Amino acid sequence: MPANTHNADLHGNVPDEAKIALLIIDMINDFAFPDGEALLRYAMPVTARIATLKQRARQAGVPAIYVNDNFGKWRSDFQSLVEQALGEEALGRAVVQSLLPDDEDYFVLKPKHSGFFSTTLDILLDYLKANTLILTGITGDICVLFTANDAYMRDFRLIVPADCVASCDANDNAHALAQMRKVLKADTGASTELDFRQLNHET
Predict the structure, then answer these.
(1) For the segment 98-130, what is each residue's pLDDT rounded down to a tens digit?
(2) Residue 1 located in a structural domain
(3) CATH number, position 120
(4) Which end of the chain is more exposed for a tag (fewer CB within 10 A), N or C?
């Protein structure tokens, strides 16, 4: 394809146009790593809130994008990660069961902390014509923060509901949210305060 030709249909599969996108970061997770149990204690309470927010987003026509670490499994794919995290011995099984991806959801596998680094997220968001991102998931002080930083540098409007983000340490999580609010100009209000009708009007 010539370099100056823009493929308008993403190879025949046009995403639904949406000015707002909900990112669910690293919640497809077996928590089988150091500090996994500590993180799970904080992740469990936010899981139900993310699930509720996702349902509200769908009703408002806002797509969900699962932005997930590949955990160094280079021969794996997203469905394999889901199946592994649903294993009977997986610590995060209850989290994944509550946030199972639906057929209409999108997914992006990332090799490092940021959802943008060496992934297709830029391309997907470009086709969606998104300009506002709602970031949720784990961990607030690492992968959510790195993704928010890269989104800010790309001029996205950022919403990071404080009640939908968790880290291994509550103080670290609060500090990361404060940094995103102060430096990245993110709205960190509660997910229950999000008005999708108003957001759609503003974007």
Answers:
(1) 999 999 999 999 989 999 999 999 999 999 999
(2) no
(3) 3.40.50.850
(4) N
